[in-house]
Task: inverse folding
């Protein structure tokens, strides 16, 4: 059956379409080329006056896995004011900072999102992360596997193993954990914390293995590059949240020697030490470095004011920050000689100098990075703010006078420390379509997502343009997932199951021999059971795998 | 034996609905296919087969190093001496039929009757909840549809721990960290072995460890009179240190220890039946250790306000981290309590004891307790799942009760509906969450059966509602 979406104003940056009136055709869940006779379409949806984009893609959102589930369990008081009632077609649940799985899928879809990626899946926790994501309906999912504080890798580095052997291990882990990309969090630092080191700077040695974060970063960035993983190494750097960490971040960029790198929630890594309070914005320096280095992409991790919960693999940083917990409770975990996690609820306040400046720093980065193909829209959900704040964030980027009104409500000292008021840039709809669709799809290697060219998956969002961009983006008229109408006027009309995107880089399976021996000697599960099978994800037809081959290495 | 095949061999193992005697079964998992001996690969019912690296679902440690021999469908645990595993795997599965009011009926009639009961119920309770991830998913879907309440058979223990966690949070560790890193282990109010028989063999007296820790030199400390400290004797014969405090007054020991750690030791000479000097010594041993771990088991802390004792323990652990690294490890979680809690949390946003009656989940661990609900007549139908041990029955009550268990040796009473179900990890494949809340493991199908899984029964029920 051919469906025609006619007359909408289309923003499709991957195909260079900038606000042109176009007809879009859907057949069998895919975008179809225009037929010779448009009247052959069985269904015609008149979209004149509407804005049409591909479904949005969130490349960094904590939606599944142990630390998210800890955050859920920890905060019943955050769920209570935001119940999600059962309907005849949807399940009940809860929302706000750490929503239940079903509510996560519904709310993302209702906002026009059709694919979301969990950025911090621990190998030891991969099965649970996928089980949780399996219960997130409608949207596509995928995950980045976390390496860099795992004993096996640190052991290999300490023993001077070759890059090739390390590549094999990284590829094995991507495959076994059913991941799409690789993330490193506080390289070596999560492990160092278990040896009672309380900080680990870029060139500082791990007390046990003697390796430095710089070595770990470089080796992993190279592995990811050489294995042909489309998404560059996803880096949560050293010293998250520490004033002065802008220097570490700049050194990280310089030290990677041109290898592709994605620096995530860079806002949290862009702090200087100037001013009376020894806390200042490093946004201009960071944006300058991003602008000068085409191998670098970033997502911002914008903070928004209000209650949220921070859930991170960075147990070292989370332990350091626990005194700021609001409400006063927090969880840290050491995990399987593999990783860790920390969950600290947090309330960002306008009138708190540090929080106000964090807000401004995020927006400064958005506005100072020239190339929207290399800066993605995230709040590091839920760490900076829940993902439901995206429409508000889009308005801040697109509407200078609104932004300045908000800026004027901040702690006055923070206003003095920020250049935000003088930044005149306003994002266009085309640029928003780049940073929320085309760019993340391109970065992740999802060739048939994030655009509306013939052959792409028919993941489509239709909005009514409105001067208030928040209103426009929070309630799309229509959302199509793989060609099915799933949302109408911002409400779910049909529940489908999204797919799981994974990658299978080639590697020498000899590595499995050493891993098998290692697991048998030290670990508390067998290698065979560590490995997550396709059948477990497909679960009798409930789930669907999309296996990406990656680019030629 | 083919231990690990190249990934591309996986291509032929696409999931399929294998139909055996009219019942759909789970697809084989990749792991399962790859680790079975090639002795006989026709089906699990073949005369003789060996299964390696099998996950044991009969306690929350989910040991996955089991070798199971199957002879004509009878299973035998090889190489491991664990009473829970042997009882669980080797329990025969006698032929069984569904029943309505004690009368044998076919599956269809039993399910139709159960659906009618749930439909006419104004407030059903989904209790027991000893099942795998898919079973728990199905139970939650049913509870959501019918406005029911969910609580696990070990809900009292879960509740103590959850309250402590939700009050102040905690610092925890996992089994592999314990095994490789812990140089001092405190067992607070539990000897562990009665609930988790292989705990010491696998995580305390393991021969090898990652960081060349001399595991035999680990310092073992028990807190509480009446605990069996035998397992804490090292292979070289080193005796554990046993502080024989009044078990119900563990909280006082912890408070005294926290005071000592803060530099304000008690003036009193004794606390909870032990000398204050001993408590001070406990604190200095913990401070001197590199990676001490404090282990407790919520079901074993069965006294009033035990959640406050657990919260105190958790604060003590956090405070120790100002000096060294220290972590907690909460055990318990048997009968798939860890699985039920995890799935309930991700699907509803709340830990167990959730009421879907208002049309959305409401968490109240006091009101939604099985014992209280039944005693007060606040629920009018009960669906009870015990898919690992058929002998675990719901508390007595007069309300219509639907029982899902593997075939029992005998019934303790007449149930409104009884539906025999398979054992996850024996009769069907599946997944379960381990007690440390991080690792989860695949379960395998080890024998042929006509029994449906609890998940399948509840999915069928859902279709009729």
Result:
């Amino acid at each position: 059956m051919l469906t025609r979406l006619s007359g909408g104003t289309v923003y499709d940056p991957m195909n260079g379409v900038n606000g042109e009136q176009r007809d879009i055709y859907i057949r069998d869940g895919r975008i179809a080329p225009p037929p010779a006779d448009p009247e052959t379409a069985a269904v015609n949806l008149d979209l004149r006056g509407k804005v049409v984009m591909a479904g949005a893609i969130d490349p960094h959102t904590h939606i599944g896995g142990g630390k998210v589930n800890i955050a859920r369990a920890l905060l019943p008081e955050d769920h209570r004011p935001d119940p999600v009632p059962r309907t005849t077609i949807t399940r009940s649940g809860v929302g706000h900072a750490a929503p239940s799985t079903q509510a996560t899928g519904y709310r993302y879809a209702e906002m026009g999102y059709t694919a979301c990626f969990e950025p911090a899946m621990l190998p030891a926790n991969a099965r649970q992360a996928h089980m949780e994501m399996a219960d997130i309906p409608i949207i596509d999912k995928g995950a980045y596997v976390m390496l860099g504080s795992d004993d096996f890798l640190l052991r290999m580095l300490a023993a001077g193993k070759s890059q090739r052997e390390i590549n094999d291990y990284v590829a094995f882990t991507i495959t076994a954990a059913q991941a799409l990309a690789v993330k490193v969090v506080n390289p070596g630092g999560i492990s160092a914390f278990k040896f009672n080191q309380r900080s680990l700077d870029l060139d500082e040695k791990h007390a046990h293995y003697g390796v430095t974060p710089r070595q770990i970063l470089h080796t992993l960035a190279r592995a990811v590059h050489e294995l042909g993983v489309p998404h560059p190494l996803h880096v949560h750097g050293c010293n998250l949240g520490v004033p002065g960490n802008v220097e570490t971040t700049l050194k990280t960029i310089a030290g990677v020697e041109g290898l592709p790198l994605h620096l995530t929630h860079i806002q949290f890594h862009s702090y200087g030490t100037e001013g009376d309070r020894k806390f200042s914005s490093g946004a201009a320096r960071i944006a300058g470095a991003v602008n000068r280095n085409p191998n670098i992409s970033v997502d911002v991790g914008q903070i928004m004011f209000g209650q949220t919960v921070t859930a991170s693999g960075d147990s070292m940083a989370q332990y350091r920050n626990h005194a700021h917990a609001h409400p006063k409770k927090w969880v840290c975990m050491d995990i399987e000689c593999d990783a860790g996690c920390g969950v600290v609820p947090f309330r960002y306040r306008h009138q708190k100098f540090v929080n106000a400046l964090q807000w401004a720093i995020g927006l400064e980065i958005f506005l100072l990075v020239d190339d929207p193909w290399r800066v993605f829209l995230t709040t590091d959900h839920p760490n900076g703010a829940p993902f439901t704040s995206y429409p508000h964030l889009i308005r801040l980027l697109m509407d200078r006078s609104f932004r300045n009104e908000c800026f004027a409500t901040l702690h006055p000292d923070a206003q003095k420390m920020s250049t935000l008021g003088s930044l005149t840039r306003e994002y266009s709809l085309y640029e928003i379509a780049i940073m929320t669709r085309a760019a993340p799809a391109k970065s992740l290697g999802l060739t048939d997502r994030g655009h509306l060219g013939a052959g792409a998956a028919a993941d489509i969002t239709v909005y009514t343009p409105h001067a208030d961009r928040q209103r426009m983006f929070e309630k799309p008229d229509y959302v199509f997932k793989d060609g099915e109408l799933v949302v109408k006027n911002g409400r779910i009309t049909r529940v489908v199951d999204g797919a799981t995107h994974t990658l299978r880089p080639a590697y020498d399976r000899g590595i499995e021999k050493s891993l098998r021996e290692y697991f048998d000697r030290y670990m508390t599960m067998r290698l065979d059971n560590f490995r997550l099978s396709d059948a477990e994800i497909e679960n009798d037809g409930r789930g669907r795998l999309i296996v990406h081959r990656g680019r030629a290495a | 034996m083919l231990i690990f095949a190249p990934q591309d061999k996986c291509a032929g193992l696409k999931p399929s609905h294998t139909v055996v005697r009219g019942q759909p079964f789970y697809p084989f998992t990749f792991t399962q296919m790859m680790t079975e001996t090639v002795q006989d690969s026709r089906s699990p019912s073949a005369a003789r087969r060996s299964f390696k690296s099998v996950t044991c679902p009969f306690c929350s440690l989910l040991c996955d190093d089991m070798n199971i021999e199957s002879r004509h469908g009878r299973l035998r645990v090889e190489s491991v001496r664990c009473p829970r595993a042997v009882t669980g795997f080797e329990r025969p599965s006698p032929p069984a039929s569904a029943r309505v009011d004690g009368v044998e009926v076919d599956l269809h009639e039993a399910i139709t009757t159960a659906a009618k009961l749930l439909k006419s119920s104004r407030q059903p309770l989904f209790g027991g909840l000893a099942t795998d991830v898919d079973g728990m998913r199905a139970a939650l879907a049913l509870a959501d549809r019918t406005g029911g309440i969910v609580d696990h058979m070990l809900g009292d223990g879960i509740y103590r721990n959850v309250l402590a966690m939700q009050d102040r949070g905690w610092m925890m560790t996992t089994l592999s960290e314990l095994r490789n890193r812990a140089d001092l282990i405190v067992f607070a109010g539990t000897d562990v072995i009665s609930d988790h028989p292989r705990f010491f063999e696998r995580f305390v007296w393991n021969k090898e460890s990652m960081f060349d820790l001399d595991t035999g030199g680990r310092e073992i400390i028990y807190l509480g009179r009446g605990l069996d400290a035998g397992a804490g004797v090292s292979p070289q014969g080193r005796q554990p240190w046993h502080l024989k405090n009044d078990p119900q007054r563990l909280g006082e020991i912890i408070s005294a220890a926290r005071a000592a750690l803060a530099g304000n030791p008690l003036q009193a000479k004794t606390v909870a039946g032990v000398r204050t000097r001993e408590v001070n010594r406990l604190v200095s041993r913990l401070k001197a250790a590199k990676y001490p771990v404090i282990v407790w088991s919520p079901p074993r802390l069965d006294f009033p306000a035990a959640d406050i004792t657990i919260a105190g323990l958790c604060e003590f652990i956090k405070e120790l981290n100002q000096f060294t690294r220290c972590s907690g490890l909460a055990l318990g979680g048997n009968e798939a309590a860890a699985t039920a809690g995890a799935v309930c949390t991700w699907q509803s946003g709340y830990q167990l004891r959730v009421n879907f009656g208002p049309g959305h989940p409401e968490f109240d661990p006091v009101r939604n307790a099985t014992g209280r609900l039944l005693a007060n007549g606040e629920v009018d139908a009960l669906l009870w799942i015990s898919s690992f041990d058929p002998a675990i029955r719901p508390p007595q009550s007069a309300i219509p009760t639907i029982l899902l268990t593997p075939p029992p040796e005998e019934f303790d009473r007449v149930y409104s509906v009884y539906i025999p179900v398979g054992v996850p990890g024996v009769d069907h494949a599946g997944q379960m969450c381990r007690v440390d809340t991080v690792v989860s493991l695949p379960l395998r199908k080890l024998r042929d059966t006509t029994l449906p899984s609890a998940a399948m029964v509840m999915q069928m029920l859902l279709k009729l509602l």
User: Anything to note?
Assistant: The radius of gyration of chain B is 24 Å.
